[in-house]
User: Fold DUF2599 domain-containing protein from Pseudomonas mosselii.
Amino acid sequence: MPRPPLVLALLFNLPSAHAGPTITDALDPQQTTDRINRNYTHVVDACAEPDTGAPRGHYYCSGVTLRMVDDGTFNPWDYSPTAQKIGASSYSWIRKDLSTSKLVRPAGFILRTPMDARALDRPVMETGALCIFSFDGCTSPKRGWYGCGMYPSGDTAACSAQDAAPGVRDDSRVPASPPAQSATLPANRNSALAFGSCDTEQVDSADAWRKRFAGGVQKGQCSWNAEQPTDWQAMVQTHQNPGSQREAWITPDQFNEFLIRTASDTADGSANMKYIDAFIYNPNTTFVASTIGDTKPATPTNGLPVAQSFQRKLFAQGYAVPVLRLDFNQPPQYRFSYLAEDQVVSVGVNGAIELRYIQAANWALRLDPGSGRQEWTLVVVPSTLGKQKQASDQQAIYDELFRLRGNDPQWRDHESSIGSMRQQLACLIGNYPAKTVWNIEPFRPKVSDAEATKAGCNPYTPASSALIASSSWSQFTDTATGDRRWGLRVIPSSAGRSASNEALYQELFRLRGNDLEWQEGGEGSMRVQLACLQNNYRTKADWNLEPYRRVVSDAQAKALGCNP
Assistant:
């Protein structure tokens, strides 16, 4: 039997149809992708503030600044304990003239360049850039000036988690007023913060760097000033040709380290949300590097579900940005790509549509408690005019919404009955006129207006079954791997318990086989688990099946308690 296309699991639930985030106007995802690819391929070595003419570092108008991070119970834009100790977070900067193809994690986010932000009338990150190392700098509290200083003389031990603990710094190698010793003239808006220790170490060129750092580069290397264009050029030159090195990882395919000042002294990095341009993942690797501050061993990770989790988290805060694929095997002009199937919220506008009543409308995938599966929700934010006219111009509001989103596959392919979306909109406006966000869902049936009102504008008719009393999906954390998994809880009826294995499986597949969560670790896994539970735990009140489990023989499944 055919299986549904892969769509990754939701890591948190959205509110009911009467609540939701207020979404900032989303940029067109393909235009975002094209712009990021242009930044990657367009080599500019003379960025400047457009109003003052003051020179800025290359990151200001060129290349791609990205931070690769883990997923967890925190937000990707927040600050790690180590970053809080240092006062800065680590990023990498990539561009066509760098051979970087290896990053510290398989997923992360991109910061919009200040020049792009100006052109798009988005918030501009004018300050915060500190320094950049030609390669990973083992940045820790032992380095002065927010991680841009030098390691204490004699500290030649390999970089390790122990470096995360505050240690003795050689502050004599950091001037009392660092930026004054490492300045860009004329001064720019970030002059008071940017500092490169290469200036105070009398390393002023790529040749000087190669002569000075013939070994012990990770801790020994100095940093380049993030606002000096000549320092960026030296960084590129040393990265591409580091000279004769004794450390195998000092190669052009490795990543550099770009430090940006934390916006708070706590873990709260919410000030970064407005600067995020996109989330990214590398489809060709699961590599996770060991980094300072790690509390557990690095575990290989698939980047796509991590990036999708990031996308959901930012969407919940009111920002809709795309997930992009970063493929170093593609030509430079196509290094980043947008795939609709990678998205778990919808971003951008389909075509040039004049919006009067709708401020924003974006899709989100959530676990519905009624259907017991992930369902698409259209999160609609009406404009001020839309709220004013919601009672009198309701049809015009719906027509505009349909022009905007009606051709999306989430609506076109999933509206269970014609008129369902229109009815939900009318129900929300009529019964909840003060709401400033409308959540409407294509899977819901069209019912009578009275039934819709009684259901809180969330009508749902469960599928009937003589063999299965109920079934629903939920998520859990696999204690062995720490991964988030989907489980299907099944309560069979009396008739179902006594039915043949095949009849019961066919009925379960009819009810759940097309759900997004039904992604088997091997074809037939769910069939084996169901038969095992029915044959060996027939009287158990409920049965739990997990698609990710591998396929084994019936005897092996029984020996493993039906949990192969």
